[in-house]
Amino acid sequence: MNVFVINSGSSSIKYQLISMPEAKVLCSGLVDRIGQEGSKVEHKSFLPQGEVKKVLEIPVPHHSVGLTEVASLLTNAEVGVISDPSQVEVVGHRVVHGGEKFASTQVITPEIKAKIKALFPLAPLHNPANYLGIEVAESIFPHARQIAVFDTAFHQSMPAQAYRMSIPNDLYVNHGIRAYGFHGTSHKYVSERAGEYLQKSDSKVITIHLGNGCSMAAVEGGKCMDTSMGLGPMNGLIMGTRAGDIDQSVIFYLVRELGYSLDEVNNLLNKKSGMLGLTGFSDMRDIGKLYHQGQPEAILAYQLYAYRIKKYIGSFAAAMNGLDAIVFTGGVGENDQLTRTFVCEKMDFLGIQLDPEKNKLPNTGLRAIQTDASSVQILVIPTNEELEIARQCFGIED
Ligand SMILES: Nc1ncnc2c1ncn2[C@@H]1O[C@H](COP(=O)(O)OP(=O)(O)O)[C@@H](O)[C@H]1O
Ligand SMILES: CC(=O)OP(=O)(O)O
Ligand SMILES: [Mg+2]
C-alpha cells in the first residue's frame, strides 16, 4: 500500500511516499518558503539505480501550487516513482490540533474537516495549513483515502493534574480550555525507540523535540504523563519565533500601557519572539555562528534557550519520580552540539553527564552520548514523523 504523507506547515510542506508495510521510502522532499521570495521544491527519489535529486526553483505562491508540483514529480519521467496518481492509495496528513475529540488517527470525513476548521483559533500557524493540505490532496488524489494523524493524540493519556488549569471549572467543561500538547507524533516515535533501546517497559523518559517549534514530554511506560505545550502550540520552551512560557502580566502591559491590539500581541509572541526576538535570527545554524563569533546576544539566547529546557527536565523528573533517559530530537536536538552541551551542563546532581566526544558524533542514527558514570542515558534519536504517520495510516487501513 502506497501512503503519501503530507506535513504542511505555515510556509512549507514536507512529504514522503512510503510503501507499507515494508516502510520503504520511495521519495521524499520539501516545498520551502511558500508565498515568499526564493521558494523551491527539493525532491529526492530512491530509484533502483540509486538516489536521484531534483531541485525546482520556482514561485510557489500557495500550498496548492506546491502540492500540484509534488504530485507531478511523483509521476515525472526522470524522477517518478509511480506511473499514475491513482497508485497513491492513502494520503496521511499531519494535523497539529485535534482538541479533545481525537485521541486516535481518523479517516477524514466532512465532519472531521469541520472539527479541524473549528480549531483554527487554537493553532493559527498550523491548522489552516493542514486543512488546505487536505483540500488540495482531495483534488489531486481523488481515489485515495485521506487520513488525519493528530499532534495532540499522544498526549491524551496525560492525567488531569497535568492537563487541567487552575481557572474556573466552567471554562474546561464548556469550552475545553486545558493543555493539549503537540509534536505528539514525534514524542511517540522517539520515546518508543528509546524504550526499545533501554529494554525497559516501565522506563521514565523525557523527550526533547527542538525544531522550529519546540516541546518536551514526560513519558512513563510509553504513556505521556506531561508536556510543555498547552492549549495551543505557544507555551513552554523558547522556540525559533515563539516566546514560550511568559508571565501573563506582560500581555496586559502590552495592551494597556503600550497600546498593542490582541492580534498584535499574538503576532509578537508567535512570530517575532523566541530566538528571533533575542538575536534577529530564528535558524539555530545562524545563531550558532554568531555564538562562535562571541556575539553577546547569541550567547545570552543560548543560555535562555537551554535554561528553560533544564527547568523542564527538573520538573518532569520530579513528576515521574525518576529518570532513565533524556532524548534529544528535531532539527536542533539532533544536530546542534552546542544546545546539548548547554542543556546538560551542571545536571550531574540528577545523574546527567554528557560525554563531550560522543556529543560530536554525526547525526546518522540513534546514539547514546553520556559518560560511563552518568546514571541517566542521554540519547539522540532522529525523529521520523512521516514514518510514524504512515504506520498509523496502515494500522487503521489494515
Ligand atoms: N546542522 C544543524 N545545526 C544546528 N541546527 C540545525 C542544523 N540543521 C538544522 N538545524 C535547525 O533545526 C531547526 C529546524 O528543525 P526542524 O525539525 O526541521 O523544524 P520544523 O519541522 O519545526 O520545521 C532550525 O532552527 C535549524 O537551524
Ligand atoms: C506544533 C508545532 O509547533 O509544530 P512545528 O514545530 O512544526 O511548528
Ligand atoms: Mg517539525
Automatic annotation (TrEMBL):
EC supergroup of this enzyme: transferase
GO MF term (any one): magnesium ion binding
BP GO terms, sorted: acetate metabolic process; acetyl-CoA biosynthetic process
The protein's required cofactors: Mg(2+); Mn(2+)
Amino-acid positions noted as binding substrate in the UniProt annotation, renumbered to this chain: 94
Entry EC number(s): 2.7.2.1
Pathway: Metabolic intermediate biosynthesis; acetyl-CoA biosynthesis; acetyl-CoA from acetate: step 1/2
Swiss-Prot/TrEMBL site (Transition state stabilizer) positions: 183, 242
Subcellular location as annotated: Cytoplasm
Active-site residue numbers: 151
Residues binding Mg(2+): 7, 385
Cofactor, how bound (note): Mg(2+). Can also accept Mn(2+).
Catalytic reactions of this protein: acetate + ATP = acetyl phosphate + ADP
Keyword annotations from UniProtKB, A to Z: ATP-binding, Cytoplasm, Kinase, Magnesium, Metal-binding, Nucleotide-binding, Transferase
Gene Ontology cellular component list: cytoplasm
Binding site for ATP: 14, 209-213, 283-285, 331-335
Family: Belongs to the acetokinase family.
Protein role: Catalyzes the formation of acetyl phosphate from acetate and ATP. Can also catalyze the reverse reaction.
Protein known as: Acetate kinase
Phylogenetic lineage: Bacteria, Pseudomonadati, Bacteroidota, Cytophagia, Cytophagales
Gene that produces this protein: ackA
